[in-house]
Design brief:
The protein is about 75% helix and about 0% strand. The chain is built from 22 helices and 2 strands. It has 4 domains: about 210 residues, Up-down Bundle (Growth Hormone, Chain: A); about 60 residues; about 180 residues, MFS general substrate transporter like domains (Growth Hormone, Chain: A), CATH 1.20.1250; about 50 residues, no CATH class. The longest helix has about 45 residues.
Length: about 525
């Protein structure tokens, strides 16, 4: 086993307080992650404003996610060749410009093009900011550094729907993009003055520039094909009936994804200078952390997609009110991040915090699965608070455990892969929730139909009482009977839909408990002062 020292704080001519650096890099990260969810609630407004159908407007989300997923795994290569600081500043500038262009778009084609540009630029923000934080703080303060990053990466998806609903309802859907312009400009100016590359990165870049450029064009092409197929597959799978698609679109995308991914892994491990470096996955702490963060964000996005749908379709809340019901969880998320940063600073093993967070996250999902349609808003708030608190407890310790044994020269590739899997977990969770809701709705409706017959005493009693009530209103026996049957049908659909939503929460709870077993294979993860980080 070799060992390398964790990079010291930023060196060179700039002696900048690492907390100032942390604030500078967290702002654009928050902005970028926010854009993965803020547009969800505005889709139908975007469709109406650009004279497009709601189905076509979904490409506004798909195009961004596909572009973002394509750039994330090669962010390490781009950072190494352009310089991390340069790449970070370019990403902020292009992301801000693309946001303004999205707000000014006059057609669906234009906004999709600008969203692709926004996604390509945004893909460089998360790994670059996390790399800066890893280098800006000493080992004993890595927990605090990852807490700052966690506030951005975890709080943004929570705030996104609420902020998006408020801007769309109060002003116009274009403001969900315009709001990025002042934030992006501020982040660019601050980062320009306080962010610098550490000496080891400058040395590596000088060595790279002294050699002939060896770019893996084949790897980049296959990567683009794989990620585009994957994102379209997830976004359109339920709409196109998955493997039942009569036009073979899903089947074709699945073949392209599977064979493309197998070839990509084989090719990138074979060549000396891959555009996507999969070698960090050989370290078991990093590999286990990648699986956990992927599944944890699948739970976050799956539950965060289902809960607003439940509140708006069955409780009658609008987009803004349903966002307000979910927003208290954000406050508890920040508070838990502070507690986690303190515990990690006290050299608590990150593994036990991860286990506690997974169990708490599962408990919150289980609580939501036990809800019913007669509850008050506060009975929705607290299960959500428990779930998000659990996720907040996981995030920073998981980042510490993931990169503790990752060697310094592998860190850029590792951060990119970790960010990719975090984002893709969200995409899978969203697709999983949508598919499960619709399939389980059909299942529960079918099961309820088995008992809704005139010979059932409960059904007869309900119809008799309903017909009597409607007869007093209308005085028409035929209309009263029709309304009674319609009321029974509405009740059936309502209960079947609620059970389908609750099934999503059940699955999320089960997934969280299962992840606990992965922690058992991880090595001790305590960031100690002056410690050397080993790379196997």
């Amino acid at each position: 086993m070799s060992s390398v020292a964790l990079a010291p704080p930023l060196t060179g001519q700039r002696a900048i307080n690492p907390w100032i650096v942390a604030v500078a890099v967290v702002i654009p990260t928050f902005m970028e992650v926010l854009d993965t969810t803020i547009a969800n609630v505005a889709l139908r407004y975007i469709a109406g404003g650009l004279s497009a159908s709601n189905v076509d407007a979904e490409w506004v989300l798909t195009s961004y996610l596909a572009a973002n997923a394509t750039i994330l795994p090669i962010s390490g290569w781009l950072s190494a060749h352009l310089g991390r600081r340069n790449y970070f500043l370019i990403s902020i500038a292009v992301f801000t410009l693309a946001s303004g262009l999205c707000g000014m778009a006059t057609s669906l084609g234009q906004i999709i093009l600008f969203r692709v540009l926004q996604g390509l630029a945004g893909g460089g923000l998360q790994p670059s900011s996390q790399g800066v934080l890893l280098d800006a703080f000493p080992p004993e303060k890595q927990g605090a550094a990852q807490t700052m990053f966690g506030v951005a990466a975890l709080l943004a998806p929570i705030v996104g729907p609420t902020l998006g609903g408020y801007l769309t309802v109060t002003y116009d859907w274009r403001w969900i993009f315009y709001i990025n312009i002042p934030v992006g400009a501020l982040a660019f100016v601050i980062s320009y003055f306080v962010v610098d590359d550490p000496d080891y990165l400058k040395k590596e870049r000088a060595e790279l520039l002294s050699r002939p450029l060896r770019f893996d064009y084949l790897g980049l092409g296959v990567l683009t094909l794989v990620m585009a197929s994957w994102e379209v597959l997830l976004s359109k799978g339920q709409e196109w009936d998955w493997l039942g698609d009569p036009f073979w679109r899903i089947q074709t995308l699945l073949v392209l994804f599977v064979f493309g991914l197998v070839f990509l892994v084989y090719w990138e491990l074979k060549i000396a200078h891959p555009v996507v470096n999969f070698r960090p996955l050989k370290e078991r702490n990093f590999a286990a952390s990648c699986v956990i963060i992927f599944c944890a964000f699948a739970v976050l996005y799956g539950a965060s997609t289902s809960l607003p749908g439940l509140l708006q379709s069955l409780f009658g809340y609008d987009a803004y009110v349903s966002g307000l019901v979910q927003s208290p969880a954000g406050i508890f998320s920040v508070l838990m991040m502070v507690v986690v940063g303190f515990l990690l600073g006290r050299q608590v093993d990150a593994r036990w915090l991860i286990v506690a967070g997974l169990l708490l996250m599962s408990a919150g999902c289980y609580w939501m699965a036990r809800m019913n349609l007669q509850i008050s808003p506060w009975q929705v708030v607290w299960p959500r608070v428990v779930m998000i608190t659990g996720l907040s407890l996981i995030f920073a310790p998981l980042n510490v455990a993931a990169f503790k044994y990752t060697s310094q020269h592998m860190r850029g590739a590792a951060v990119g892969l970790f960010a990719l899997l975090r984002n893709e977990g969200g995409s899978v969770g969203t697709s999983m929730a949508q598919t499960l809701e619709q399939r389980r709705l059909q299942f529960h409706t079918s099961r309820m139909n088995e008992f809704l017959d005139p010979l059932n005493p409960a059904v007869r009693s309900f119809l008799e009482r309903a017909e009597a009530g409607f007869y007093r209103q209308t005085g028409d026996p035929v209309e009263s009977q029709r309304r009674a049957l319609q009321a029974l049908d509405n009740l059936r659909e309502q209960q079947a839909a609620s059970l389908a939503y609750f099934d999503v929460f059940w699955l999320c709870a089960a997934l969280g408990v299962t992840l606990v077993f992965l922690v058992l294979i991880m090595k001790r993860s305590v960031a100690e002062k002056g410690e050397h980080i080993g790379g196997e």
